[in-house]
């Protein structure tokens, strides 16, 4: 259950929930001091009232699922999506890499022919793209291994890790560009 | 869970471990290749590197790792997006066709590596 922007301090300091009926005298003694800081919980976000939050103008009260197109994703989500996209790209790029390996080892003549082909602008751009995608995928993979070790598993740590991966991948992409051109 | 019938090792737990072990093998292999390609590389030294037995074994190991790693990764992507919920009634058929195509391609990759390095 999600509660928006509110920390319920009551559950941190009390081992039981405050009584809901504060009208009785005994309960009043318990409840009254709490009212200084124990504000009532905001309504929980659930399937029924989600539509009212996501699309406030709609009169429809039927349950809705979270629509990813309408909510702002955290940087960790973009890091995960990019990891998937680069992974799928590497599946297709593997064909080109295997072809290049084949040509480079078939004979000295094919090795030289491959070298000449790879100096064309289109081939250089492809090489840069594959190298950058692979570097991002590898860095995001290392982040996974680091998190598997229990480091940076919090939301704050996840955001920091995703940002570090994006920055490192950007630097790597620029470096590949400098090395290739 | 019906979809696990097409996963690589049939259980998520061993898929998880295989994905990580293969990732380390692939990372080591690509770092080695990147190190070799830095600076000028000529045919003689490149061919001599791939003539050594340890390099042939390492290349085959990387190819097998690529196949397993891609299978697990693509399976995760396929079962998330190529579904009846995302694509309508044809979703399951599209997913199984893609899964079959990817699996055949990966088997082809491994055979190709064997032909390149061991023949």
**Approximate strand percentage of chain A:** under 5%
Largest sheet of chain B: none
CATH topology of chain B: 3 helical TM bundles of succinate and fumarate reductases
Largest interface: A-B, 22 and 22 residues
The helix fraction of chain B, in percent, is over 70%
What is the count of helical runs of chain B?
Answer: 5
As a whole number of angstroms, the C-alpha radius of gyration of chain B is 18 Å
Structural class of chain B: mainly alpha
Our measurement of the CA-to-CA distance between the termini of chain B, rounded to an integer number of angstroms, reads: 42 Å
C-alpha Rg of chain A (nearest Å): 28 Å
- Overall pLDDT score of chain B: 92
**CATH-level-4 superfamily name of chain B:** Fumarate reductase/succinate dehydrogenase, transmembrane subunit
Structural class of chain A: mainly alpha
- CATH third-tier fold name of the domain at 75-180 in chain A: 3 helical TM bundles of succinate and fumarate reductases
Number of helices of chain A: 7
Report the strand count of chain A: 0
Low-confidence stretches of chain B: none
Low-confidence stretches of chain A: 1-17
Quick recap of the structure?
The complex is a heterodimer of chains A (181) and B (119). Chain A has 7 helices and no strands.
Explain what you see.
The complex is a heterodimer of chains A (181) and B (119). Chain A has a domain at 75-180: Up-down Bundle (3 helical TM bundles of succinate and fumarate reductases). In chain A, 62% of the residues lie in helices and 0% in strands. Chain A has seven helices and no strands. The longest helix of chain A has 32 residues, at 75-106. Mean pLDDT of chain A is 80; it is low at 1-17. Chain B is an all-alpha fold and 119 residues long. Chain B is built from five helices and no strands.
């Amino acid at each position: 259950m999600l509660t928006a922007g509110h920390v319920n301090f009551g559950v941190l300091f009390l081992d039981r929930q405050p009584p809901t009926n504060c009208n009785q005298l005994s309960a009043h003694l318990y409840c009254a001091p709490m009212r200084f800081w124990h504000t009532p919980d905001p309504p929980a976000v659930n399937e029924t009232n989600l539509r009212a939050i996501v699309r406030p103008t709609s009169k429809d009260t039927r349950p809705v699922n979270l629509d990813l197109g309408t909510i702002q994703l955290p940087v960790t989500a973009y890091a995960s999506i990019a990891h998937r996209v680069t992974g799928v790209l590497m599946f297709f790029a593997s064909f080109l890499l295997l072809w290049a390996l084949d040509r480079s080892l078939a004979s000295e003549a094919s090795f030289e022919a491959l070298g000449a082909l790879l100096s064309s602008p289109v081939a250089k751009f492809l090489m840069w793209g594959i190298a950058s995608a692979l570097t991002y995928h590898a860095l995001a993979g290392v982040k996974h291994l680091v998190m598997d070790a229990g480091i940076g598993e919090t939301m704050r740590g996840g955001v920091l890790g995703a940002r570090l991966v994006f920055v490192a991948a950007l630097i790597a992409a620029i470096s590949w560009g400098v090395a290739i051109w | 869970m019906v979809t696990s019938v097409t996963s690589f090792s049939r259980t998520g737990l061993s898929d998880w471990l295989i994905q990580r072990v293969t990732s380390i093998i692939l990372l080591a292999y690509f770092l080695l290749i990147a190190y070799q390609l830095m600076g000028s590389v000529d045919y003689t030294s490149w061919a001599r590197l791939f003539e050594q037995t340890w390099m042939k074994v390492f290349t085959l190991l990387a190819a097998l790792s690529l196949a397993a790693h891609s299978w697990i990764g693509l399976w995760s992507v396929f079962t998330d997006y190529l579904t009846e919920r995302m694509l309508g009634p044809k979703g399951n058929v599209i997913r199984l066709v893609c899964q079959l195509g990817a699996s055949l391609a990966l088997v082809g990759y491994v055979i190709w590596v064997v032909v390149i390095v061991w023949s």
